[in-house]
């Protein structure tokens, strides 16, 4: 399979994975699981139902905190085995389904907790490896294409949750027509079983991932990336802001459905329809605000989302009218959801490609760290009220906003290179600095040309090896320093120059074309001229050694002494 086709296939598999996985989670980790735990807890401990719901949610959050970073580091250390790791996640998913079904059959709280622990391990392993493969498959894409792909992932995830809740809502309407629209064990368990069943096609999507052929090794030598070091604080500040907002969400997210159930008497069908409509509103807001971010700026739209969330929570703590509370509930969720892909894209722009596996894991932890604060939210609700928890959450979001504001001083909305180190300018002059993630073509990389290609790979630069017909016996003769499987692609010279250029552009848009061996001089000059890249020009006798030395001498550079003659006497 061609490199581009394989990468495009992985991107589509990622969309399918996100859609199916969110459908499953929407059913098995939504309000029906909360109500199931609340009911079992109330049978043994009165007035502690919310606390136990929060405690069980914290099991997932704490488990994620313990396993996410090791998984991310493990994936970065095994960049060529990520598809195999995705397949190894499947047994964990099957084990989670087994314990989940058993807990429903036996009504045992401890089995529910064990299921949540195993499912969280599966979820973290699956999402981290899928995210790593997804990021690798997007490395040859432009910034706008990558940002669009991240946004689509969020939209598919949100729509999957909405579709799952919608199907469940239809089932609840059927139950309602038969006077069964109550929070009984049958409806709750039927919904949870449907969620467990949807994990099976989700695991099939994991098996469908393939290793991208252009994974490059990480390197501990980052000293050459000075601009990266100058902005290394950006991911940390952004992460702290996301952590505070996630903790704020944790105080309320698991209790919002219970808020409408316990205080406003909403039925299962009404809750299911609300859970269905909310994700579609979220998806629409994500798409709309993503488009606005392209015109106004990602940083400004992120601030708008945070301010909107804060105001929504404050108003929710003050009003009691149901329709207004529902509107504020949808607005808060839509704004919080729309902010995530903007944060994701900014973080990736300011993270070197050699660390993206780790930072994707960090982002995964932070995006779900609200689980760790759920137990505190349950305690606040039990000791005070739902409205008081909304006010505390608004304070945490205000702190997140304060940490994010300094980022507006950076060019967050400028088009950046793959590593995110330096913003690109809009000038027509070609780029002169190579950064991690950009692409370079090395023509005939044998001998020292292959060593050059290996050095580029070590610095995080993607390399396409182009072999000319003139390379003859040196064709595909790589030095030991270069591992061919690390290359983005290997291309042989086509029948015409235009066909060769088309083959290169099909893989990626290169930043530069460099000659790796003497036989590649003509192709390097001609191809760089044709593709509008910096070139030495098509000067005559470019391979004449005396012309080369005289050119160096004329430029004021050190050169070898030379003489030319038709006999030894003249020399």
TrEMBL record:
Keyword field contains Ribonucleoprotein = no
Give the matching Gene3D superfamilies: MFS general substrate transporter like domains (1.20.1250.20)
What domain of life does the UniProt record list for this protein's source?
A: Eukaryota
* Transmembrane feature ranges: 12-32, 52-77, 89-106, 112-134, 155-175, 190-209, 236-259, 301-331, 358-381, 388-408
Q: Does the keyword Membrane apply?
A: yes
Region feature (Disordered):
414-433, 538-571
Provide the alphabetized UniProt keywords: Lyase, Membrane, Transmembrane, Transmembrane helix
Q: Name one Pfam family in it.
A: MFS_1
InterPro entries, per this entry? MFS, MFS_trans_sf
User: Which molecular-function annotations from GO does this UniProt entry contain?
Assistant: lyase activity
Q: Where is the composition biased (Low complexity)?
A: 414-429, 554-565
Which PANTHER family does its entry note?
Answer: NODULIN-LIKE DOMAIN-CONTAINING PROTEIN (PTHR23525:SF1), TRANSPORTER, PUTATIVE-RELATED (PTHR23525)
Q: What is this protein called?
A: Argininosuccinate lyase 2
List the source organism.
Answer: Durusdinium trenchii
């Amino acid at each position: 399979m061609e490199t581009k086709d394989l990468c495009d296939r992985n991107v589509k598999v990622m969309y399918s994975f996100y859609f199916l996985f969110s459908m499953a989670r929407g059913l098995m980790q939504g309000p029906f699981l909360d109500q199931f735990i609340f009911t079992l807890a109330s049978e043994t401990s009165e007035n502690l139902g919310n606390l136990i719901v929060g405690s069980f949610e914290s099991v997932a959050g704490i488990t994620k905190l313990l396993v996410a970073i090791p998984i991310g580091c493990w994936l970065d250390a095994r960049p060529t085995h990520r598809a195999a790791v995705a397949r190894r996640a499947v047994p964990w998913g099957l084990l989670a389904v087994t314990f989940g079904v058993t807990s429903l059959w036996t009504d045992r709280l401890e089995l529910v907790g064990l299921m949540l622990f195993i499912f969280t391990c599966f979820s973290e392993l699956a999402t981290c490896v899928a995210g790593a493969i997804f990021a690798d498959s997007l490395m040859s894409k432009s910034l706008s294409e990558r940002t669009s792909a991240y946004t689509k992932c969020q939209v598919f995830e949100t729509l999957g949750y909405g579709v799952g809740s919608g199907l469940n809502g239809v089932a609840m309407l059927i139950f309602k027509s038969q006077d069964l629209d109550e929070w009984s064990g049958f409806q709750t368990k039927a919904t949870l079983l449907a969620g467990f069943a949807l994990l099976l096609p989700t695991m099939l999507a994991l098996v469908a991932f393939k290793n991208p052929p252009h994974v490059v090794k990480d390197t501990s030598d980052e000293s050459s990336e000075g601009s990266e070091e100058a902005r290394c604080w950006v991911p940390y500040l952004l992460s702290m802001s996301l952590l505070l907002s996630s903790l704020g969400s944790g105080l309320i997210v698991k209790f919002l459905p219970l808020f409408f159930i316990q205080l406003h008497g909403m039925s299962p069908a009404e809750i299911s329809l609300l859970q269905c409509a909310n994700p579609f509103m979220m998806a629409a807001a994500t798409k709309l605000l993503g488009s606005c971010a392209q015109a106004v700026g990602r940083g400004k739209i992120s601030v708008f989302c945070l301010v909107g969330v804060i105001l929504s929570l404050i108003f929710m703590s003050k009003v009691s009218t149901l329709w207004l509370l529902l509107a504020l509930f949808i607005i808060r969720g839509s704004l919080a959801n729309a902010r995530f892909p903007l944060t994701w894209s900014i973080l990736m722009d300011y993270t070197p490609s050699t660390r993206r596996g780790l930072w994707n894991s960090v982002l995964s932890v932070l995006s779900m760290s609200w689980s760790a604060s759920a137990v505190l939210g349950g305690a606040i609700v039990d000791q005070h009220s739902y409205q008081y928890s909304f006010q505390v959450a608004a304070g945490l979001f205000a702190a997140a906003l304060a940490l994010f504001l300094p980022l507006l001083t950076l060019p967050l909305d400028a088009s950046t290179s793959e590593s995110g180190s330096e913003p690109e300018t809009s000038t027509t002059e070609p780029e002169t600095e190579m950064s991690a993630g950009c692409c370079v073509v090395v023509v005939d990389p044998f001998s020292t040309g292959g060593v050059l290609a290996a050095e580029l790979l070590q610095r995080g630069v993607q390399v396409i090896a182009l072999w000319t017909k003139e390379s003859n016996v040196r064709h595909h003769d790589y030095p030991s320093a270069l591992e061919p499987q690390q290359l983005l692609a290997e291309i042989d010279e086509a029948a015409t120059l235009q066909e060769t250029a088309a083959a290169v552009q099909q893989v990626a848009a290169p930043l530069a074309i460099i000659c790796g061996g003497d036989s590649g001089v003509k192709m390097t000059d001609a191809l760089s001229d044709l593709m509008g890249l910096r070139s030495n020009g098509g000067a005559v006798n470019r391979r004449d050694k005396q012309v080369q030395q005289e050119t160096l001498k004329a430029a004021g550079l050190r050169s070898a002494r030379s003489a030319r003659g038709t006999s030894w006497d003249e020399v």
